[in-house]
Amino acid sequence: MLTFENHNSGLYHDKFPVCWKVTNFTTQGPYSIKSTYQSQLTFMKPQVDHGSDTIVNASTYKLVNNKTTLTKDNRGVYHFSDVTKGEVGYLQAVNGSPLVEDMEIGRFHKPNSDQGPIPILYFKSISNSAFVKAQFVPILCTYITEQYQEMQIIRAEVDADLARLGPSTTWILTHDKATGKYTTTKGH
């Protein structure tokens, strides 16, 4: 599983990383994954399937390098305002809609793509007139786990972080079916 995180305060309390990419390993032999992403961040108004805790899509989004406001018009349609100047080094979104809303930070899948943004950090239950303020520099984290699917909200810290691996590392992954436990040993 690949996800973007930034271990700042409130993680797994009022903000949650979102599973970006999942891949399966073959039973033996070498395996690799390749992905390209753009670092342009965006605020998004998510639609969440609460049964699976998965983000279905974004109803609206706004490229942002500073501050924006989420509103809901009289037809029930969400909008983000034009970006305004906010505190330097922070992304900020104000909930200007009349109700408590969820928001998220996302990034674009591929440079110059027509595909919408991919969620990477989910903010739950932002009160009316409250705001999300994040000093967010996405850090790509890798995990070995079977617990998550793409676009699923990660509610708790995941074991088995592989972020400290070198650019070319060989590991042998074994699975004990009796215990369900995965073990990695460094290969040659």
Task: Describe, in short, the structure shown.
By secondary structure, the chain is an all-beta fold. The protein has strands at 2-5, 15-17, 19-21, 41-49, 54-63, 67-72, 78-80, 91-95, 101-108, 117-126, 131-134, 139-142, 171-176, 181-186. Strand 4 (41-49) and strand 5 (54-63) form a beta hairpin.
The description of the largest β-sheet is: 5 strands, antiparallel
Rg calculated over all Cα atoms: 18 Å
Strand order of the largest sheet: 2-10-9-4-5
What percent strand? Answer: 35-45%
**Spans of at least 5 consecutive residues with low confidence:** none
Structural class label: mainly beta
Shape, principal axes of CA atoms: elongated
Attribute tags:
5-stranded antiparallel beta sheet, 4-stranded mixed beta sheet, 188 residues, mainly beta, elongated
Structural description of this entry:
This protein is an all-beta fold. The protein folds into two domains: 95 residues, no CATH class; 50 residues, no CATH class. It is built from no helices and 14 strands. It has a five-stranded antiparallel sheet, with no helix packed on it. A four-stranded mixed sheet has the order 7-6-8-11, with no helix packed on it. A hairpin with a 4-residue loop joins strand 13 and strand 14. The chain is elongated. The protein starts with a strand and ends with a strand. The model has no long low-confidence stretch (mean pLDDT 81).
